[in-house]
Structure formats: structure tokens, C-alpha cells
Amino acid sequence: MTFNLLGKVRIPMEVKELILQAEDIHKATELISSKLKKPVIIENKNFELIAYSSTFDDFDQTQQKTILSKKCPIFIIDRLKKEGIVTRLEKQSDPIRVHPMEDLGFQQRVVIAAKHLGHTLGYVWVQESEQSLNEEEMDFLEEITGHLGKLIYDQFMKENAKEGRKEELLWQLLHHEYASESQFRHDASLAQLKIPDRFSIVVFSVTAPQYKSMLDDLENTVNRFRTNRHLYYLKTEFQLILFIEGRGFDRFSSRDIARDLIDVVKVETGEEDFYHFLIGVGKEYTKIYYMRKSFLEALEVIETANFIGPRPETMPREFPKLGLYRYLAALYEKNSSEDYYSEDLLTLIKNDTTKQTDLLFTLEAYLANNGKGKQTASELFIHPNTLNYRVKQIQELTNIDFSDFNMKAYLYTELLLLNNVDSYYERYKAALQK
């Protein structure tokens, strides 16, 4: 160290040169910290951790939380915005002293915006603790932050290139566009793409173009969800495709994780907006060759949901549970082309129309619950005696035999179409006019 006549500490020129020559932001952070004798943290513009000085361990509570969670706590960010600190950082290039927020575990510190090509790319935080930075040290910070901005920019571009390569390899998996599995695994290793031993593909698709902005919020939810789980995702204009890794030899664990994610999305999106998503979950596999298969299964669930326009929660989201729903489109085409109708169901539709009954919907619920009266009545919010009366009406009006499994299976598929596909129901209603 050298001293000027006023006794202020001057930063040796060679230290500044070392920092300005550094190509690694972690090395630059350590150099800054060691010369200022204070803890230093560097964050990007989204307040996500980029680097911190490991030679100092007396970080305050806020900085400790930032290091552990890789992001500044949201309540600190809100306070900084409220007090105008973030706005000042955007407008000025010199350091700003931020006073303590003792109630939040935030000690006094100096912050300066790291800019490159005229844009703020991040922030450099120096925790002052017992002794404040002097004027020379503040000038030093201002002189080096331009280079730190460039280092943040360079790191961002490298990570983007790496993420871009990962995305390219994931698309190859979904479309079987690789020469051999060994070559793919080699390329994945170079790109630091971890291939899961157990996985399922989950696809979120919006129901209409006007809802595509919801995918941005969904992406934020997914990023929070994956902080302690391993998953990748690809984003298209109207879809988010997730690669969910299961747990070792725990069968169906990727499916369980997918269910947890869907529950989180439902809570964060809200009941009403949640149903603007169509969601498909492919089967769990353990060989990367079947990655595309799981993807296509998830898409089939979405295509089926899009076809029938289901009421909330009526249709399974998981491909293995799709069951009869897989064949509804084929049944629709066959019956429509052959102008086929069930005489029993025509009778019930006529009765519902003329006498304002609800026999058609009652029949579907009764069959779906395998003839369990108490469960069906609870689902329909009616008294069991009311259900018994409706079932008796159905038996009197039709030739339906509830002991005939084949008949029940057929009627249930036909009812799924009638109660969920408007055009199919209108075709039946039109037949009543003939």
C-alpha cells in the first residue's frame, strides 16, 4: 500500500491493472475484495449472484442469504426499489452508499452499477461493516466497473451459447436427430447436459394465442420450482416442454414430481387462469431413445384435451391414464361419417329437452362412478333418493342394462362425446328433428 500526504490509502496501480486484465470475474472479485479488505458480491441486473469473495466470511445476513439462494432476497430488492436506489443506479455511474436496514439484516454498503455498451448489466456490492470506503477507494470502484460490466457480458454470452447448445441437443432427442446414442452422450457431456436415468416429458400448452403471455409467468414458476430439482425445459411460441428427471431407482418418481409441479402452477396461476393451460404428461422411461415417445404421448394428451374441450379436471393429464379418451376422436369420425346414433341416448336427450331433466349428465356420472350411488350423488350435489329416481327414469325410458359391462363401456364413451364435444351433441339434437 502507498499513502498520499493526506493519509488516504491509494490503491496500487498494479492492482488496478491486474483487475483490468482479468478475464475471469471470480478472480476480479477476489482481487477487489483483498485490496479493499471488505466482502464483495457481484450480481447481474436481475439481482442473481454471479461472484462473491471467498476470502471474507463476515457477510451480513442479507449477503449470506444471497450466496445460499444464488439471488438477493425479494424483500431487499423491493426496499431498494422503494427507496429509489435501483433508479439511481440506472442513471448514475458513480458509487452509491446504501445505509443499513437493521430490521432486514442489511449492513451499510456501497453499490455501483457495472455497465457495458451503455447498458447496466449488474451491480457490485461492497459491504462496509466497521469502516467506510474512502474517496480514493470509491474512485477505484468507479474506474474498474466498466471492465466488470464487460466480464458480466462475456459470461452471459458464454452461458447463453452453452444453453443454446443444450437446447439444440434436447431438440435432437425429441426428434431422434442424432447419429448414435454414444455420439449424443459425448456431445451432451461437452455441453454439460446431464442425461437423466429416469424421466418423463411434460408439456404445457395454452388454449388460445391470447394466453401465450402466461408462458412467461409459467417459466418463472418452473425456474423457482427447479431450484432443488433437476429439470430442463424448451420454450416455443405456445408451449413449454419440460424434461423432468426422476429419482434414481424410484419408479414413477418423475411422474410424482410432475404432479407436484402442476399443483404449484395451479396455485400460482389461480383457479380460473390455470384452465387456459392444456397439460400432457408422458410415460416415465429409463432410455433416452424413448425421450421422443414420452414427448409424443404428452402431445397426444393435449390433442385429446383440445378436441373434447373438457370440463375442469374431467380428463386425465397423464398418458397412462388416458384410457377411453384416446379413442374419442376416432369414434367421433366413425359415428359421424356413418350417421350413427344411440337410440337410448336420443331418448334421454329428448326427455332432457322437453321436460328440463338432467338424465344425460346423470347417466355419465353414474357410469363413471361404476354405479356407486352415494359417490355419484355426492359428485352431482343431489340427494341419493334423487339419484335413485333419475336412474329409475333412465331404466324406464331406455333399454339400458346396467349389468351389461359391454353396454356400459360403449355408453360411457358415447356420453363423453355428447357431454364434452358441442358439435357431437348438436348432431344428436338435429337428429331429433328428422
TrEMBL record:
<dbReference type="GO" id="GO:0003677">
    <property type="term" value="F:DNA binding"/>
</dbReference>
<dbReference type="Pfam" id="PF17853">
    <property type="entry name" value="GGDEF_2"/>
</dbReference>
<feature type="domain" description="CdaR GGDEF-like">
    <location>
        <begin position="180"/>
        <end position="303"/>
    </location>
</feature>
<comment type="similarity">
    <text>Belongs to the CdaR family.</text>
</comment>
<dbReference type="InterPro" id="IPR042070">
    <property type="entry name" value="PucR_C-HTH_sf"/>
</dbReference>
<protein>
    <submittedName>
        <fullName>DNA-binding transcriptional regulator, PucR family</fullName>
    </submittedName>
</protein>
<dbReference type="InterPro" id="IPR025736">
    <property type="entry name" value="PucR_C-HTH_dom"/>
</dbReference>
<dbReference type="Pfam" id="PF13556">
    <property type="entry name" value="HTH_30"/>
</dbReference>
<dbReference type="InterPro" id="IPR041522">
    <property type="entry name" value="CdaR_GGDEF"/>
</dbReference>
<dbReference type="InterPro" id="IPR051448">
    <property type="entry name" value="CdaR-like_regulators"/>
</dbReference>
<feature type="domain" description="PucR C-terminal helix-turn-helix">
    <location>
        <begin position="359"/>
        <end position="416"/>
    </location>
</feature>
<keyword id="KW-0238">DNA-binding</keyword>
